[in-house]
Design brief:
Layout (H helix, E strand, L loop, with lengths): L3 E2 L4 H10 L3 E3 L18 E3 L9 E3 L3 E5 L4 H6 L7 H8 L4 H6 L2 H7 L6 H7 L3 E6 L2 E6 H4 E3 L2 E2 L6 E8 L5 E8 L10 E10 L2 E10 L6 E2 L1 H7 L30 H22 L1
Parallel strand pairs: 1-3, 2-3
Antiparallel strand pairs: 4-5, 5-10, 6-7, 6-10, 8-9, 11-12, 12-13, 13-14
């Protein structure tokens, strides 16, 4: 018979992972739909009872988002404009029931190219904290996700938190998604950006595009092109097709490669224009 463990502390959880192969479960919004009509044979480690893995707090140099924090909790949290883009992405993740149950870390560990949370977190320069029996360490989000459904996590490790560094200058973010309909849809492409401003000009920029490669990616050429630009309503005109040249979108039932590149450029421009207009 499969086993079911529900620890109440992080040390207890990582000790269990060190003893053998377990399937980590929190909200279960990816796990259960993939097993409809099938018997559940996995040995489960349910981390939903670990209080220390839930919630958002200011840790001084960064904000710490616990791994089992739900999207609804993020939406409801009082956070600075830096988090506006991530909150917009949160509202696009399934319906309210999914947002109530689904966790931010689960969205990352699932590592879907169309995961709505990833571009917004990349634009926040997020890091992930990984725990095992020896302790914990952090690494950049773009180093954590290796490709479609692949991460660096070992079977004995657990993603324990997402860390958002505090920007050096006033900053805000934005997010936009394109799908076949408004809600409850897998993304065709999505864009997120964070801008830091000084004297009305961009002094730091982070722009990411999702569902346009095996994993969401930052756009460093565009980020460099934005530095020093006056932040105004037409800021998006600085985004060019060549800034997306490194992306490798696929052709599938939702869209062609060419459409994704065209739509991605349009979305990036809209996101930058919105941030410019707000400034």
């Amino acid at each position: 018979m499969p086993s079911y463990l529900r620890p109440t502390s992080l040390p207890e959880a990582v000790a269990a992972l060190a003893q053998g192969s377990l399937t980590v479960l929190a909200g279960g919004t990816d796990y259960y739909p993939s097993r409809v009509g099938k018997p559940l044979t996995d040995d489960i480690l349910d981390i939903s009872a670990i209080a220390g893995l839930r919630g958002i707090r200011d840790d001084g140099a960064h904000w710490r988002i616990g791994a089992t924090t739900s999207w609804s909790e993020l939406i409801a949290a009082e956070l600075p404009p830096l988090f506006d883009g991530l909150k917009l992405a949160a509202r696009e993740i399934g319906g309210v029931q999914i947002q109530n149950a689904g966790t931010i870390a689960g969205n990352l560990c699932n590592a879907s190219p169309a995961a709505d949370g990833v571009p917004a977190l990349l634009a926040l320069d997020a890091r992930v904290e990984i725990a095992d029996i020896a302790g914990s360490a952090s690494l950049a989000l773009d180093e954590f996700i290796l490709g479609n459904r692949r991460t660096v996590l070992r079977p004995d490790q657990l993603l324990s938190a997402i860390l958002i560094p505090k920007p050096a200058h006033p900053a805000r973010s934005h997010f936009a998604k394109l799908g076949a309909r408004k809600y409850l849809v897998v993304s065709i492409v999505m864009a997120a950006a964070t801008l830091e401003l000084e004297s009305g000009r961009v002094c730091a920029a982070r722009v990411a595009l999702g569902a346009a490669s095996e994993m969401a990616q930052r756009l460093p050429l565009l980020e460099a092109a934005l530095i020093g630009r006056r932040c105004a309503a037409q800021l998006g005109e600085h985004a060019k097709a060549e800034h997306l040249a490194a992306l490798t979108p696929i052709d599938d039932v939702r869209a062609s490669r060419e459409y994704r590149l065209d739509a991605g450029l349009v979305l990036v421009r809209r996101v930058l224009n919105e941030l410019g207009a707000r400034a």
